[in-house]
Amino acid sequence: QVQVQESGGGLVQAGGSLRLSCTASGLTDGDYDMGWFRQGAGKAREGVSCISANGAITFYHANVKGRFTISQDRARNMLYLQMNRLKPEDTAMYYCATGMVGDRILEISEYTSWGQGTQVTVSS
């Protein structure tokens, strides 16, 4: 059974930085893509940044491009999200997810294993 766990959230002032980490265990052989998603209060969950299993494809939401950087360590099944120049509108619960989504890397519904989330709060 795949288990996903996020860490690294917290409270930060606008303009500050945070680094989120995610570990996935129980992955069997296969091309598991991974991604970060977020859900603000009263909002739908949205994709923040995703990366293909081999790292060749990355996606960033337009609102975070240039500020956030996704990276992975597949040997350790770790995923990271470096978040710089944070804004109050980045405040949300951030989730890590994995699945063999292939070319549907942007489809939230294709990700089969999710963590519990880590809260990021950016004060103005």
Describe what you observe in this structure.
With 124 residues, this protein is mainly beta. It contains no helices and 11 strands. It has strands at 3-7, 10-13, 18-25, 33-39, 46-51, 58-60, 68-73, 78-83, 92-99, 113-114, 118-123. Strands 2, 4, 5, 6, 9, 10 and 11 form a 7-stranded mixed β-sheet that branches. Strand 7 and strand 8 form a beta hairpin. It is globular and about 45 Å long. The protein starts with a strand and ends with a strand. The relative contact order is 0.32.
Number of strands: 11
Q: What is the count of DSSP helices, taking H or I runs of 4+ residues? A: 0
> Which regions have little confidence, pLDDT < 50, spanning 5+ residues?
none
Report the helical percentage: under 10%
Distance between the termini: 40 Å
Please state roughly what percent of the residues sit in beta strands, choosing from under 5%, 5-15%, 15-25%, 25-35%, 35-45% or over 45%.
Answer: over 45%
Q: What is the arithmetic mean of pLDDT?
A: 95
Shape designation: globular
Which class do the helix and strand fractions yield?
A: mainly beta
| Major β-sheet annotation | 7 strands, mixed
Secondary-structure element series: EEEEEEEEEEE
Radius of gyration: 13 Å
Features:
124 residues; mainly beta; four-stranded antiparallel sheet; 0% helix
Can I get a quick summary?
The chain is mainly beta and 124 residues long.
Secondary structure elements and pairings:
Elements: E1 3-7, E2 10-13, E3 18-25, E4 33-39, E5 46-51, E6 58-60, E7 68-73, E8 78-83, E9 92-99, E10 113-114, E11 118-123
Parallel strand pairs: 2-11
Antiparallel strand pairs: 1-3, 3-8, 4-5, 4-9, 5-6, 7-8, 9-10, 9-11
